[in-house]
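Notes from the 1:1 (GR / supervisor)

We went over the backlog. Supervisor wanted to see one worked example end to end before approving the batch request, so GR pasted a single chain during the call. The sequence is below; no edits were made to it. Supervisor asked that the structure be written out right there so they could see what the output format looks like.
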Amino acid sequence: MNSDRLLEHYARIADAPDAIARLRRFILDLAVRGKLLPQEPKDEPASELLKRIAAEKMQLMRAGEIGKEKPLPPVDADADFDVPSCWRWTRLGIVTSYIQRGKSPKYAASDGALVVSQKCVQWRGLDLAVAKQVTFESLTDYEKIRFLRDGDLLWNSTGTGTIGRVIQLVDPPDRLVCDSHVTVVRCLEVDPEYIRTWLRSDNVYALIEDRAAGSTNQVELTAQMAINQVVPLPPLAEQYRIVAKVNELMALCDRLEAARGSREAVRDRLAAASLARLNAPDPETLKADARFALGALPALTTRPDQIRQLRQTIVNLAVRGKLVPQDPNDEPASKLLKRIAEAKAERKKETGDARINMEPDPKPDQLAMALPRGWAVQSFENLFLFIDYRGHTPPKTDEGIPFITAKNIRMGYLNREPREYISKATFKTWMTRGFPEIGDLFFTTEAPLANICLNNIEEPFALAQRAICFQPYAKIDTKFLMFNLMSDVMQSLIDKHATGMTAKGIKAAKLKPLPIPIPPLAEQHRIVAKVDAMMALCGRLEASLTATAAARRRLLDALLAEALTPVDAREMEAAE
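Structure output shown during the call:
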């Protein structure tokens, strides 16, 4: 094994998403292949150990402590890799005196004896705090051999997410038993912790876990499967050395994991502090805070969730008027709102639409922000015609007119998946409340609440319930309004007026009078341009993170593969 290069490059792979987990699995794999430590010529070979085990078993059978065993199939066909010459492939049933699943107990309501279930078997050890109780009377039905002993291995036999976990018992309570979801493995003349090392390596545990995860039926590890499980067996002295080295290296992994956690915590605190100063800006220090944050965040940002926080901060700054400076030469927002009011009145006059009502302007004090110079507020109802289709869902078809539901409306974008359709005949009778136009806004009223996106669909389509189309009465930058409604200010305001516990929703009547901060039209355009540029920067940062993570994974894969390749093979490849 050549682990020097692995250690040499560790700093470059340490932040790979699964680096520590991969290192743990790597250590176990090396251990059970005989590649973690050199072999000692003075060790008694495993072949002699197997003879002693067979002799000890014979004595136990003669004494009546264990029953006669059925012959097991040869091991050669099931051996997955070559082992050192002093090792031997064998089966778990050969190096154990007892392998048996527990039995279903008669549970006690309270004040009984503890019984181990698969929930009790945790990687950190045995957790009897979650154990159920078995009646004391039923313990009389248990043979002596079933009571758990010091050194027994408990191997979870069933349970999604728990199957394959294995622990070694240390000083268990008297008369402790396990239920039928746990297999007891009692080793004979071998180190139980070495056997556990093998059972939790990817050669065994990962295969069991993958089989359980890929099945819709209950997957079980039967006692016979455990008995037939192959085991690469080192000399006994080497087993002890392997276990000691594995424990040492796992402790090192614990320290590396803790150090990585500390680094992440420091990054999180610095990033959170930088974003907090921007989300609650001080006018006197905002420029300096923004420069520092934008300069430092690429170095502090190592995870996708941190990029999401940065995107949200950009939107929050935009809606507070802190992303671009105000221009005193801009036409004030009050004049824009006057034109919108005139357009609304004209539409009411021309169409007689009963949905269009002339409502008073809202007051800015409902917003949890101060309005920048030249800004104003206006309500949803005075800005938009609400086009919605409440009441019921039309019959779906396999093809026809696209049907846009709340599932398609994501935060900031429209996702055409999943695709649903209604017939052309249904479309004619359904779309009677108006047709969305390119650039209109789509809003979800519940499940999820307050997702917002722009309409970019050119072909005919229908709109489902739980979605509202906001159609402006006059020219306004709807992309700015989308960013506006994505902000914490507006999301909090909408949430405050929503109802429901598990699935919050807001009625149109509650939504219509809520105020929206509106900048001058020219500033809206500048804000959108700035947000787009900064979101593109976030996209590049996100792509860089993905590429870096992929590079770290590739480097880790290469180093692990190199470490597992015998030196002679590498020298031969180099010579070729």
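Supervisor's comment: The CA atoms of residues 384 and 487 lie 19 Å apart.
Batch request approved.
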